[in-house]
Amino acid sequence: MKKILIVEDEEAIRSFEAINLKRVGYTIVEAGSGEEALAIYDSEPDFDIALLDISMPGMDGFTLCTELRKRSQKLGIIMLTARTQEMDKISGLMMGADDYITKPFSPTELLARVDSLYRRVGMNNAQQKKMSDEIKLGEFVLNVRKHTLLKNGKNIELTQVEFQIIEYFFLNPDVALDRTDILNEVWGSNYYGEEKIVDVNIRRLRMKIEDEPSSPKYLVTVWGMGYKWNSNN
What we know:
This protein has two domains: 3-126, Response regulator (Rossmann fold); 134-229, Orthogonal Bundle (Arc Repressor Mutant, subunit A), CATH 1.10.10. The protein is 42% helix and 21% strand. It has helices at 11-23, 34-43, 61-71, 86-94, 107-126, 160-171, 179-186, 196-209, and strands at 3-7, 27-31, 49-53, 76-81, 99-102, 134-137, 140-143, 148-151, 154-156, 177-178, 219-222, 226-229. Helix 6 (160-171) packs across helix 8. The radius of gyration is 18 Å and the shape is globular.
């Protein structure tokens, strides 16, 4: 069952999203506020994706995203916003969202972004790799079956997207990967969004894995190219 939680205080917009997603086979649960959404999730946490409007009275989308991410690293989260400011998009991603859509959007874009994230979430949850369970690089151990990353034996909580990015780097240590490579590998070649989503996720990952995120020694920038995982530490 493909299950989505739609959180939007404007009924007309919420109905538009629900109708279009139901047409292609998603099971929809609607909430008109962040508080209602959190109560729903706490009672039935078997959702694959949550669509969160940012601008809601009471608990806004940013706060709801943070609360949902505390409860699950596996839940796919897409932020919906009418704002055009870059900081709103970046803030949502830094709080744990996997993607964002700027209003107004077409049914085609909505379905494409939701389908893309659902494929990633579903693939990660059902993935059975034909390789060694673990990839060890220095003080890090990535378990591809359990979807865990350990640093000196301590678990680092990763979202689905973060895990896919780290896995891509671990499979290609010391190889410079440009943003397009990473975008195509993790988000897919048909991704509607912008390349900067890669940079924001790299920044978020550095905050989790680096001793000094502002001076990274593992996930390093290759100027004019992209990023690489430096295993020579």
